[in-house]
Structure formats: structure tokens, C-alpha cells
Amino acid sequence: MEIYDITIIGAGPVGMFAAFYAGMRKAKTNIIDSLPQLGGQLATLYPEKYIYDIPGYPAVKANELVGNLEKQLTTFNHTFHLEEEVLSIVRDEDIIEITTNKGIHYSKAVILALGNGSFQPRKLGLENAESFETKGLDYYVNDLMKYAGKKVAIAGGGDSAIDWALMLEPIASEVYLVHRRDNFRGHEHSVERLQESSVSIMTPYIIDELMEENNWLSGIQLKKVKTDETVSLSVDHLIVNYGFTSNLGQLSSWGLESSRNAIAVRSDMSTSMPGVYAAGDICSYDGKVKLIATGFGEAPTAVNNALHFINPKERTQPAHSTSLFNKTIQ
Ligand SMILES: Cc1cc2nc3c(=O)[nH]c(=O)nc-3n(C[C@H](O)[C@H](O)[C@H](O)COP(=O)(O)OP(=O)(O)OC[C@H]3O[C@@H](n4cnc5c(N)ncnc54)[C@H](O)[C@@H]3O)c2cc1C
């Protein structure tokens, strides 16, 4: 049984920085997120937006900040469990049992950096869609080469759908982009590149039916919006890119004291469950401000106090700052 010192649930900016800081304190660290990628709201909701209130950066794009956090974090050899949603945490004597949709993890302390809750892709609203999730229907692109030489349809009208279509154009044998409106919501430059590409643009269509042959997706039927007109495309893969939803799911049943839809913490970031700490958007205390910068401050507080909880001999202040406390404030 693998037991971590600290398990960080949520790999948004705050969870990522907490994991980096846990590495600085040599804690054996496990990071769990329901998404396949790091970066939380920044990576899923606004990767191209500039952020102006990060100390030391006059302006930084969200995806660049995530890239830098990742670079900083991967200096340590932490364990990652991505695409795994935490369903419950239970304290059993000195160990916290973390149950996910894929298994159970054990940890001496936990830091909850859940933000607005677990992100999930918005799914295709067809009755039998779920049964295709292991046979040609994808909500994430993890490995571009899996589509090499294949006929691929992408559904969606935002930047991600357009970006995937353009990235797959030279790799797949055929790329279709299906959108229910005539206009795309992507950047003008991306839309222009799309129009100049060999991607077949199918608008305004919705996906009406998934077809199967030899236990794999063989095609999709499209229905033209506000008409009965249908068209069938023979495809090997369908990538649905309808954005994400976030929800706090079963958090209310985890037995943690909460306030205003967030987890109540003390000034050391501890929650009402011994050994469980919280930081970032998910935590609540008097005067809490939901910003990346404030979350970055809460993360080391949570890590240091979690380590002190595991081993009371551990200092709660980083070594380099202790000299401050020998001085008398005049
Ligand atoms: C459009 C927009 C613009 C913004 N601009 C700014 C800005 O300019 N400056 C600023 O400071 N802030 C900005 N914010 C707010 C900022 O994004 C948040 O404060 C920040 O993302 C909080 O970070 P976090 O790590 O606490 O949570 P999140 O970024 O929400 O990350 C939480 C992570 O936890 C995961 N998770 C949650 N529950 C579970 C579970 N049960 N199991 C597994 N994984 C789970 C989620 O999948 C997610 O990846 C903006 C927000 C939005 C929406």
C-alpha cells in the first residue's frame, strides 16, 4: 500500500504551486485531478487570456503561467493521477483514504485545491453516446498520432475545436468540423486559417446519430439545424469539444465544515477534518479573496502546516525565514 505524505486534490494553479512547495519540503506527494491536463480554470476556461495581477509578471497569458508552473513543479518527481475524480475522503486513524472513480489512495495529509469543483467535458447528448466512449468517441485528445491516416470528425465551434481540426489536418486522412451555427467563436486568425485549410466545414449541423460497425464507430449522421435534411459521414473517430462544466459534486457529503459553498479553514488552512487542509478558490475564511495570487500564498501555508501535523517536530516556517522571528519589532 503506497502512502503519500501529502495528496493534493486539484491541479489548478494553486494545487500546482502547493505540489511544487511540497517538493521543496521533500514531501512524498501525490496529485489528483479529474482533468487530463494541469492548470484548472486557466487551462480549461481562458488559456489565451492575459492575467495582470500575478506578482512579478506585468502580463502573462494563462497558458504560459500554467506552463511555467509545470516547469517549476516537474523539478520534483511527484506522482500524478490525472483523469481521476475524487468522490470521498475518509480519515481512518492516522491515514486518510481518498476514493476516486478509479481506485483508492492513501495519504497522511490532504490539501484540497478544488477551485470551483471538478471539471468534466460537456458530453454529447445522444442516448447511446456513452457506449461509444471506448470505441471511437473522444472528449480529450491525448495522443495525436492515434488519428494518423484516420477519418476524424470534430464537433464544436470554439477555439479548441478549431485548433484540434487544424492540428489534425496534416495527420488524419480526412477532417470534418461540425458546428450547429454558421459562425465560429474562435479567434479571427484561427477561423481564417480554418477556411483556408482542407478541413471540411459542416455547418449548421448537429450530430443526430452514431453508427457502429465491428464494434467501433463507423460514421455519424448529421441533421441540418431547423430542417429535416440529414447527411451521413463515414468516420473512424469523433472528438467532441463542447466545453466543460464544473461542479462540487459530492463535496457536501465529505463531512467538512463549509461556508458559502466553500470549505471553511482556519488561518493555518486546516479544515474541520484533522490532516485535511484547503487552499485557493475552494477555501473560505473572513476576508477571503478569490485570486490566483491569494491562492499562491495559501498553498505554502497549507503545506507547512500539513507537514507539521504529520510530524509535530517539523517546523511550520521555512528555514530561511526563522531569523526574522529573532528580531524584535520596534
Ligand atoms: C474567465 C476567468 C478569468 C479569470 N481571470 C483572473 C485573473 O485575471 N486573475 C486572477 O487572479 N484570477 C482570475 N480568475 C480566477 C482564477 O482562475 C481562480 O482564482 C483560480 O483558477 C483558482 O485556482 P485553484 O487552483 O484554486 O482552482 P481551479 O483553477 O478551479 O482548479 C481546481 C482543479 O481541481 C480539480 N478538481 C476539483 N474537484 C475535483 C475532484 N473532486 N476530483 C479531482 N479533481 C478535482 C478541477 O478539475 C480543477 O482542475 C479568472 C477566472 C475566470 C473564470
Structural features, described:
Helix content is 20%, strand content 30%. Strand 14 and strand 15 form a beta hairpin. The model has no long low-confidence stretch (mean pLDDT 92). The chain has 2 domains: 3-120 and 245-326, FAD/NAD(P)-binding domain (3-Layer(bba) Sandwich), CATH 3.50.50; 123-242, FAD/NAD(P)-binding domain, CATH 3.50.50.60. The radius of gyration is 23 Å and the shape is elongated. The chain contains 6 helices and 22 strands.
Quick rundown:
This protein is an alpha/beta fold. The protein has 6 helices and 22 strands.
List the helices and strands and how they pair.
Blueprint: E1 3-9, H1 13-24, E2 29-32, H2 40-44, E3 50-51, E4 60-61, H3 62-73, E5 79-81, E6 86-92, E7 95-100, E8 104-112, E9 118-121, E10 137-138, E11 151-155, H4 159-168, E12 174-178, H5 188-196, E13 200-202, E14 205-213, E15 216-224, E16 230-234, E17 237-240, E18 244-247, E19 258-259, E20 262-264, E21 276-278, E22 283-284, H6 292-310
Parallel strand pairs: 1-2, 1-8, 2-5, 8-21, 10-17, 11-12, 11-17, 12-13, 20-22
Antiparallel strand pairs: 3-4, 6-7, 7-8, 9-18, 14-15, 15-16, 19-20
Helix pairs in contact: 1-3, 1-6, 4-5
Flavin-adenine dinucleotide is lined by residues 9-15, 32-35, 40-42, 45-46, 49, 51, 53, 85-86, 113-119, 249, 280-281, 290-293, 295.
